[in-house]
Every structure is written in structure tokens, then in C-alpha cells.
Amino acid sequence: MNMTDWPVLVAIAFAVFLGMEVFAWAAHKYIMHSWGWGWHQSHHEEREGWFEKNDLYAVVFAAFAILLFVIANYGYPLVGAVATGITLYGAFYFIVHDGLVHQRWPFRHIPHKGYAKRLVQAHRLHHAVKGKDGGVSFGFLYAPPIDKLTRQLRTEGTVAAERRGESGTDASATRH
Ligand SMILES: [Zn+2]
Ligand SMILES: [Zn+2]
């Protein structure tokens, strides 16, 4: 089989899709909750209007994927497969994170069972912490067991500290 045969390309796109979760987890934990907090903070606060500054991250990732598609057009199908994987992850993230969890869609659906419920709950726990530090559950496709996350939150003690107003960030801002 050739590297540019379609089953290989599909496999690469799928692998990139899965790999994006690791990348997204790391970017969320080490960039967005670190030096990239300037953009991400808006996502941990009440949103005013349709957009938040954090959406700029999606713009950057989309621009990168588009660039890869352009390169692929010059005869690099492998690059196209990578771009497809990134785009699929973006679409999934947009549907589940922005739609299901944050209800930025015109319709509401709250999953009451199965893995979808766990995904939503895990991300809600991420948002239980308003500030930059001491959060849990930075990934998305993979949600750790909920009781593990609640235990971790309790150990970190961030939520309680924020309620007492000990944290440097504005703990009064609520976002559910
Ligand atoms: Zn976050
Ligand atoms: Zn979120």
C-alpha cells in the first residue's frame, strides 16, 4: 500500500484527531491557563453577547488548518489528511463544548446518561474554578471519572478558596 492511498490517509486523519486531544489538553493547561490566560479568562467569566475573547483561539487553529489545506492543494495529500484530522477535532469541539456544554446553540440538550453526560459534567467541573490556577479536567474527548475530579478539586481546595475570596481573581463572576 502507498502512503497516499485513501485508507492510509483516513487512518492518518483519525490518528491526528485523537492526537489533537493530547494537544488540546496541553494547550489548555500550559498555554491558556498560563501565559495565554489573557484570551482564555473570558471563557471562565459570564459572556456578554455572542462572542468572547477566547474564541480567538478557535480562529488561530482554524487559520492553521486552512493553511494546511492550501498546502495540500499543491500536491501534498498527507498534509491534507493532517488538516482533515484537525478540522474534525475542531468540529467535534464546537458541537460538544460550545453546543452541548455551554449552550451557545439555539437549542438545548442536556445528556442524562452515558459518556456524553460524563463529558459535560467533567467540563462543568473545569469551570467550577473561575481563576487561572488549581483547575481540573483540561482535556475534552477524554473525561476522567467524575468522582476522581471532585476528589481532585477538593484536594486542590481552589473552589473553596475562591468562595472565601482568597484567590487573586474575581471570584464573584459565575459561569455554569
Ligand atoms: Zn479553562
Ligand atoms: Zn468551557
UniProtKB/TrEMBL annotation:
Segments traversing the membrane: 6-27, 56-72, 78-96
Q: Which UniProt keywords apply?
A: Carotenoid biosynthesis, Membrane, Oxidoreductase, Transmembrane, Transmembrane helix
Which Pfam family, giving just one, matches this sequence?
A: FA_hydroxylase
Q: List the molecular function annotations (GO) for this entry.
A: beta-carotene 3-hydroxylase activity; iron ion binding
One GO BP on record is: xanthophyll biosynthetic process
Q: What class of enzyme is it?
A: oxidoreductase
Q: Which residues form the Fatty acid hydroxylase domain?
A: 15-148
Q: What is its EC number?
A: 1.14.15.24
Superkingdom of origin: Bacteria
Q: Give the PANTHER family listed for this entry.
A: BETA-CAROTENE 3-HYDROXYLASE 1, CHLOROPLASTIC
What family does the database annotate? Belongs to the sterol desaturase family.
Q: What is this protein called?
A: Beta-carotene 3-hydroxylase
Organism the protein comes from? Aurantimonas endophytica
